[in-house]
Design goal:
2 copies of one chain form a homodimer. By secondary structure, chain A is of the alpha+beta class. The first copy, chain A, has 2 domains: 7-165, Alpha-Beta Complex (Nucleoside Triphosphate Pyrophosphohydrolase), CATH 3.90.79; 170-232, Arc Repressor Mutant, subunit A (Orthogonal Bundle). Helices cover 22% and strands 27% of the residues of chain A. Chain A is built from 4 helices and 10 strands. The first copy, chain A, has helices spanning 58-70, 151-165, 182-193, 199-209; strands at 14-25, 28-35, 45-46, 49-51, 76-83, 94-102, 118-124, 136-137, 212-218, 228-232. In chain A, strands 1, 2, 3, 4, 5, 6, 7 and 8 form an 8-stranded mixed beta sheet that branches. In chain A, strands 9-10 form a two-stranded antiparallel ribbon. In chain A, a hairpin with a 2-residue loop joins strand 1 (14-25) and strand 2 (28-35). The relative contact order of chain A is 0.15. Chains A and B meet through strand 1, strand 4, strand 5 and strand 6 of A and strand 1, strand 4, strand 5 and strand 6 of B.
Amino acid sequence: MPGAYNPADFPPLAVTVDLVLMTVADGRLAVLLQRRSAPPHKDDWALPGGFVGVAESLDAAAERILTEKAGLLYAWLEQLYSFGDPGRDPRMRIVTIAYFALLPHEALAGTLDGRHDLALAPLDIPWPGEQGGPVAALGPDRRPLPLAFDHDDILDHAVKRLRGKLDYSPIAFALLPPRFTLRALQDVHEAILGIGLNKPAFRRRMLDRAWIEGTGEREEGGAFRPAELYRVKPEAP
Amino acid sequence: MPGAYNPADFPPLAVTVDLVLMTVADGRLAVLLQRRSAPPHKDDWALPGGFVGVAESLDAAAERILTEKAGLLYAWLEQLYSFGDPGRDPRMRIVTIAYFALLPHEALAGTLDGRHDLALAPLDIPWPGEQGGPVAALGPDRRPLPLAFDHDDILDHAVKRLRGKLDYSPIAFALLPPRFTLRALQDVHEAILGIGLNKPAFRRRMLDRAWIEGTGEREEGGAFRPAELYRVKPEAP
């Protein structure tokens, strides 16, 4: 319950939304980065983000930034966490509301063409339970690419939350097209967890959980034994 | 990634932290409310909250507000969600970061004495899966007490998140003292879920999950068969 507002004690702060836009590409979890064109951290890579307009909800800001910065009309947007350490931006006090923006790799097709300011960076994911270090975005040389501001912390938080939500929410399906094979679903789980999974056990668990159902259709292309396509049931949580 | 900052496009916003301070009292989940002493919503009840200082982290603001507004030195603080609809406060654009502040009822002892501006309101919790309506704080007449601003929404969000976290996180233990009986643990679960649970099945599930261990001690007082006291294992998630 905010009390009487004394602007001298509590000057207004800037509020931004940053997107942790992730997909699974080539079997790895990957994040969309934007190269900064202006100080601070000029030329460094960062999560795409922007200031929240004065008459704009947080969700609306996330949608606008998705379109303006990443050129995308749709992703699974979900608020992740707010970061507000006083020193996180050298310009001024900025509180940022981080959002997941998840989408299947197919949905990114073409959006990165000719956009030299954007890059889809694969992630180095430590093994679950490993104390070895945080999640890191990898540069073209496959070495960790330090991100601007506290964006490495935000990225680390996002991957851990995604991993935590795998078992009790259908969030993984946001990384898949509407119809997918069980192999593709396993790829997504393995990419998020950073480990290989036993195929029969994984399939049994997914079918037991009853969030998905077979479509009766099979994948197209030249597969010798084309796999069945599944979809999320409408009543999944 | 915030771009060049144009104050005309994006005037700074006010940022507050609001606490959803909850405990279990008399077998019911209850929330701490504060009566507003100034407009807007003067004399209405609201979640305790305050503006974030310019050099203060969000977590530090939550701790300060816990002490200043509720007179408490400690609670389980955990960021819940950020609420930022443009019309949520009639004074100005305010984005609020809501925090859980959870504590055992014993820890509130004495803090409400003589504080006519504070009240611990029991919650009316709809049955899980019931479409019947949101969570509501109850007034002294046991009827729903509409809260100021969007605080009913924040409260509803908090209870649903708490319910969702029961099964995969040890958050329920924040509502219990360090040593507790299995009956008290069941009371907390029943209060959050809004349903009665089968005692043998509940105990088996709690002991199978292996987050708690017996202390070998028994509760004090006049019980004919004093129950064993349990504690959370150090390695619980």
